[in-house]
Amino acid sequence: MIEIEKNGGLFLIQETNFQDIFMIEDFDSTAKQMIESTREFVQKEIYPNLKELENHNYDLVKDIMKKAGQLGLLGLNIPEDYGGFGMGFNLSMFICGEMSSFSGSVATAYGAHTGIGTYPILYYGSEEIKKTFLPRIASGEWISCYNLTEPNAGSDANSGTTKATINKEHTNYEITGQKIWISNAGFAEVFIVFARIEDDKNITGFVLNKSNSEGITLGDEEKKLGLHSSSTRQVFFDKTRIPTNQILGERNGGFKIAMNALNVGRIKLCAATTAAAEQVLNISIEYALQRRQFKNEIINYGAIKEKLANMATLIYCSNAALYRAGNDIEIKIEQLISEGVNETDAKLKALLNYAVECAIMKVNGSEVIKFVSDEGIQIHGGMGYSADTLVEPAYRDARISRIYEGTNEINRMLIVEMMLKKAIKKEIKIFHSIKKIQKELPLITLGINTKFPTSKLKNEKIAVCKLKKLTLLMLGVSVSKFKAKIVKEQELLMRIADLIIETYICESALLKTEKKINNNGYKKCSTEINMTRNHIQKSLNLCKNSAEEIIMATTSGIKNRYLISISKKLTYPLQLNIKETRRKISEKLQSDKKYNFSI
Question: Average pLDDT, stretch 215-242?
Answer without folding.
Answer: 98
